[in-house]
Fold Hydrolase.
Amino acid sequence: MNNLLIEKVISLINNRNRQNYDLYKNNGYINLLSLYQQAIFEQTNDQEVLNLNVKEFKKVEFKSFDSKNIVGIYHLNKKKSKKWIIACHGFSSSKESSAIASYYFNKLGYNIFAFDFRNHGESDDALITMGINEEKDLVHALEFVKTNFKTKEISLLGFSMGAHTVNRVAISNNIKKYNIKFAVADSPYFETTKVLKRIINTIGGTLIGNFLDKILQGVYKVYNEKYKIDIEADTITYRIPLCKNSFPVLYLHSKKDKVTDYQDSEKFYNLRKVLKVKDALHIFLTGEHIRTQVLHTVMYWKLVEDFINNK
């Protein structure tokens, strides 16, 4: 397989969503927050999203495990609270989308923290690993929140790649000190190789589709040899029964999701039964990828509230 084609595919995977880059100048993240807020309100007509004052979000920066600069934003609840929700966005998205998608937690009395994974939004250039290094970014976000704010408990909310990353942290055996109470995983995928195949197939079109399996092997080889990331060997299946300390996870997915498979949420849910935590699972019959929140708003948040109250 042509090495130039392989490198081109890797470049496309790591081509950040920078259409809004100019908006980040002069605290332009507020503008992006406003755009996402208005979009959710128009789709849901949920007044609660407008109760989240985007102008009160503040920006911070911290370093990840490899000294990459990670940019985050936070919002303090009007009622003094030591409860935090950390929101994790999906592939090619940004902190603004996950921050606004956390709006209902403002009503529930949580402070909100969201950050850009490596090679997304305002964070530093770095190889996107679909959860492998992003897991370490999330752990450093947990450390930043715990160190810089008075936290009584922290919980997590993740979408797609962010949901997969949340699941990785949930079985990492390195989280007890953060007192994580629960997580909500919206439309996660289970296998990195499976989702990477879909991404390459989507961005590559017909030509790449004809050579997809060979291109995948080439991509795996470059990731492994050049960047020391063994995607094929990376599996979280074996990590679940070895986990000694986890927290409850609510899995939300749609049968109509064409990006990630709802059966991946079922797989997480079933494999995690050995952990003896109060996980929950709900599969919506309709809704595109990470769209059940706006399509089934009332039920979505009721499921979240009931899960929190019963954890």
